[in-house]
Design brief:
CATH topology of the largest domain: Rossmann fold
Radius of gyration: 21 Å
Strand content: 5-15%
CATH class of the largest domain: Alpha Beta
Largest sheet: 3 strands, parallel
Number of strands: 5
CATH architecture of the largest domain: 3-Layer(aba) Sandwich
Helix content: 40-55%
Number of domains: 2
């Protein structure tokens, strides 16, 4: 463990995780857990940027942990913890506010996108300040590597800027994290609008494949997924000219561990319904296995509670060391 680089990553417990969340994040976590020392967080504080019903949020936290386990993330190899159980996150976030500029936060693309959906009078400071808490999450554990999708690169650049700014005043305190960019094809797009990313918060459930969709629902959603009107049909990966087909190929490639190049050969001369049938078949097989594992873990509350306690204790031990170091260097008594 001591010789391994540290990776930090987190997911909000807002329910309804999608196949996109699995392929873009959880699958990657599973694949890197032997190479790196990984710290994975259930980011419940981040989820509060929009109102969460208390009983639902409480349930979602345990649901998310069971999902981690069902996806193959091993708590004996990694630290898995709940963000709010480690108060050093918010304490460091407050300090990092003084090394973050108002203009930087205003320029965050995700913030701009979200405020378009909100009444200007109801934009809370937590939404605006989200990247600073994210910086604290990462810097608290001296993370070397951060898995990100292309839509999150701006956030990581801000984390780096905050750390560099702090270090320029107080010396090399924070590790400057590097990005691990998700591989091509790991960003899964909306089924009906393959020009936008699949999102668990999408108001139209037909745009997403939930990890808990039944086989019948999967059949319906994939059959309705956008393709194109090319004659004759051409099943090739081309995100610009064939986004719908490319998205289906990405899903199939990731859940079968078969390269897109091999799939293009396999489906050469075939029609789009053949591709959809294959996606449906493999999605159903994969998700049926996943759900069986999930319910086994979810019903074992004692196991989940033990993982939460152990993970939070490990995370807090590391976080205390780092926060004490920061407090001392800036002059807090």
């Amino acid at each position: 463990m001591l010789n391994k680089l540290t990776v930090f990553s987190a997911i909000q417990p807002t329910g309804n995780l999608t196949i996109g969340n699995y392929i873009g994040a959880l699958r990657q976590w599973k694949n890197i857990q032997n190479k790196y020392f990984c710290i994975f967080s259930i980011a419940d504080l981040h989820s509060l940027t929009i109102y969460q019903k208390p009983n639902i949020l409480n349930k979602n936290i345990l649901d998310t942990l069971a999902i981690f386990l069902a996806c193959g993330i091993n708590p004996s190899k990694n630290i898995i913890f709940i963000q709010s159980h480690v108060p050093q996150h918010t304490q460091l976030s407050w300090i990092l506010n003084y090394f973050t500029y108002f203009g930087e936060l205003k320029r965050m693309i995700q913030f701009k996108e979200k405020i378009l959906l909100l009444n200007n009078n109801k934009i809370n400071i937590g939404l605006f300040n989200y990247p600073v808490l994210m910086a604290a999450d990462i810097l608290l554990y001296q993370a070397n590597k951060i898995p990100v999708g292309k839509d999150q690169i701006q956030h990581i650049e801000m984390v780096r800027n905050i750390a560099i700014r702090f270090n320029s005043i107080y010396g090399k305190i924070f590790t400057i994290p590097e990005k691990i960019i998700s591989s091509n094809g790991s960003c899964i797009m909306s089924l009906l609008n393959p020009l936008k990313k699949m999102s668990k918060s999408d108001l139209n459930s037909n745009n997403i494949i939930s990890l808990f969709d039944s086989n019948d629902i999967i059949v319906k959603k994939i059959n309705n997924a956008v393709t194109d009107s090319n004659i004759p049909p051409n099943i090739t990966y081309d995100k610009i000219h064939k986004p719908g087909i490319s998205n289906l190929l990405s899903i199939l490639s990731n859940i079968t561990n078969n390269s897109i190049q091999n799939l293009e050969i396999e489906f050469k001369g075939k029609i789009y319904s053949d591709l959809k049938k294959s996606v449906i078949e493999h999605l159903c097989i994969f998700l049926n296995k996943f759900r069986k594992k999930y319910y086994n873990y979810r019903e074992n509350k004692k196991l989940l509670d033990n993982i939460i306690i152990n993970g939070s204790n490990q995370a807090q031990k590391k976080a205390k060391v780092m926060l004490n170091k920061v407090n001392n260097i800036i002059g807090l008594y």
